[in-house]
Each structure stands twice: as C-alpha cells, then as structure tokens.
Amino acid sequence: MKVRHSERSGEKVQLQMTPMIDIVFQLLVFFIMTFKIVSPEGDFNIRMPIAAPSEGIPDDELQIPPIIVRLRATGTGHLSEIRMGETPLGRDFGELNQEVRRIVGDTTGPNIQDAAEVEIDADYGLQFEYVMDAITAVSGYVGPEGNVIRVCEKIKFAPPRPEP
User: Fold this and answer.
1) How far apart are CA 128 and CA 60, in angstroms?
2) Where are the domains of the chain?
3) At CA 91, angle to CA 47 and CA 124, rounded to 5?
4) How many Cβ atoms sit within 10 Å of the Cβ of residue 22?
5) Which pLDDT tens digit goes with each residue over 7-38?
C-alpha cells in the first residue's frame, strides 16, 4: 500500500493496524458463526454397467428382477415420457416415487428394499437434470418430520442407446 505524504511537513504518516486487525477478526467470527455443515451431495450407491456382464453364482438373498425406469426424450433433450416397465407415468416424478414405494415399500429395516434394484434406461439426448430427478424419485423422499426415508439404494444404468 502506497502512502503519500507531504515532504514539507516533516511528519511521518503511520498506518493504523489495530482497526484493520479488528475488522479481520470480526469477519473471521462472522464466517465461523454462519458456517453450516451439510451432508455431501450426490452420495449414491450406483452401479454403472461394465464392459461385459459376468456370470456368477446368485446370492442366497431375496432375488427380485430390477425395476426398469424408461426415460424418453424429445428432440430437444427435454423429458417426453416416464415408463416403469410397461406402465406409462406421464412426466411426473412424484408418481414415479409413489410407484417405486408401492412396489418396494418404505418401512425401515431389512426387507425388500435391501434387494430392490432400479435400472434407469434413458434416451441418448436426454438432459442430465431429468436423470437426476429420476434418481431422486427412486432413491427416497423426505418424511413428515423432515428426515430422509430411503426407498431404493441400488441404482444402475442401462447400456447407452445409440444416438438416433
């Protein structure tokens, strides 16, 4: 910082450091007091498709077929339709959540939720936000008390479809 002073007066101009230090400490206290710790976003238990499916011995656990969610896109990349199996759900992710909850159940504890798996089959040009909305809809919801209730934690993606 350059300080200009007159050579005629013969006085030295001093910088006042105490007010600057006070301001720094006030800012430090402000940021510490307003800091909110949030849980990390995007923590999904997602299994991506591998190059070639491997044959293996099935687990002794409950074996159910994956719930296939088909997301169709318009030519501009917007969502045109959601289908769960052969059932059309329109474009409503709330209805998708209700259907997954109906199939899997939303009670806590070891049950079909541990073995349930959702496979998301999206069109090539679908915008990413719709895929994230689908993941949110099938993975859980916020309960009446504000707590997160998990529905399905195993989410995988179908192999990509070729671009039309």
Assistant:
1) 36
2) 46-51+61-157
3) 50
4) 10
5) 666 678 888 899 999 999 999 999 999 988 77
Burial of 110 (0-12, 13-18, 19+ CB in 10 A): exposed
For residues 125 and 92, is the Cβ–Cβ distance under 8 A? no
Q: Alpha carbon of 133 to those of 11, 63, 64, 109, 150: distances in Å?
A: 68, 27, 24, 25, 15
Task: State both tokens at 22.
Answer: 């006070």
Residue type, 9: S
User: Which residues neighbour 160 within 8 Å (Cβ) at sequence distance 6 or greater?
Assistant: 124
68-120: pLDDT as tens digits = 888 888 888 888 888 887 878 877 788 888 888 787 776 555 556 566 788 88
Residues found in the chain: 164
Instruction: Please name the amino acid found at residue 124.
Output: Y
Structure token digits, residue 160: 């990509």
Distances (CA, A) of 88 to 43, 82, 114: 29, 6, 26
